[in-house]
Design brief:
Length: about 120
């Protein structure tokens, strides 16, 4: 049985952006064209992880990291941007067998090394 939580999620959704690096290619005269960055506007609920998760996961996550709930299916390593900060999709849970909402943990990208 799958629960339809997408309706509940819509109430709390906010915009965020998926940043994907395209593929470079060679043009007809043999000059390499660098990849273009794609910015895809999405919606989801991005929340603080909470004290319990930051304490129980061996210090892997900090107060700068976030939890993302969305109906979009991200790949591990995707980079998302929310309120001017960039995050890397680190993990996802196996919620999709029970719900139409996906849960991901987001690791903050260093402010000195934006993607």
């Amino acid at each position: 049985m799958r629960f339809n939580q997408a309706r509940t999620l819509r109430k709390y959704e906010r915009p965020y952006t998926l940043i994907r690096e395209g593929e470079g290619k060679w043009n007809s005269v043999g000059v390499y064209q660098p990849p273009e960055t794609q910015r895809i506007d999405l919606r989801g609920s991005i929340q603080a992880l909470g004290d319990k998760l930051t304490q129980t996961d061996g210090g892997r996550y900090t107060v700068d990291d976030r939890l993302l709930l969305t109906t979009y299916e991200h790949e591990s390593g995707d980079v998302v941007e929310h309120q001017g900060k960039q995050y890397t999709v680190e993990t996802d849970s196996d919620w999709n067998q029970y719900s139409n909402v996906n849960e991901y943990r987001l690791k903050r990208v260093s402010t000195h090394d934006p993607v």
